[in-house]
Amino acid sequence: MPILLDTGILYAYYDRSDSWHKRAVSVIRAEAGGLIVPAPVLPEVDRLVGRRLGPKARAALYDGFIEGDFLVADLTHDGYRRIGEMNRHFAKLDLDFVDAAIVVAAETLGISRIATTDRRHFDPLAAALSLTLVP
Q1: Is residue 40 exposed (0-12), middle (13-18) or buried (19+ Cβ within 10 Å)?
Q2: Is it the case that residue 32 has pLDDT exceeding 90?
């Protein structure tokens, strides 16, 4: 069953010092073959990996996409409209673009599972939208 990856879980997978690293490795290894990364996550995780972990880690991240370990889900034009709707509807959560894009990708692809480290934003979203958060 496919699972969407957010920035935090993908970053933690590459950063051995991250408190979420072991959980991220566990999720990613258990879900191999169905790992989907919404396109808006890419620049965010690339920036974090590059700045904090350096060029070798960045190259490993790129290899994950090149080799097909992670599949990229682009958003449709309607998806971008839906991001605006989500931000208005959940204004109290102060969602950023990427968080809203992850939820929109889940809706568009019919995927209910999201691997995330961001419980502040995703716990209320999961409850409201019947999403399952992993780990």
Answers
A1: buried
A2: no
In CATH terms, the fold of domain 3-134 is Rossmann fold (3.40.50)
| Dist. CA 9–CA 15, nearest whole Å | 10
Cα dihedral 110→120→128→10 (10° resolution): 10
Angle value at C-alpha 71, between 67 and 75, nearest 5 degrees: 145
**C-alpha separations of 58 from 15, 73, 126 in Å:** 11, 20, 30
Give this prediction's pTM.
0.94
Q: What is the DSSP string of the chain?
A: --EEE-HHHHHHHH-TTSTTHHHHHHHHHHTTT-EEEETTHHHHHHHHHHHHH-HHHHHHHHHHHHTTSSEEEPPPHHHHHHHHHHHHHTGGGT--HHHHHHHHHHHHHT--EEE-S-HHHHHHHHHHHT-EEE-
pLDDT at 110: 96
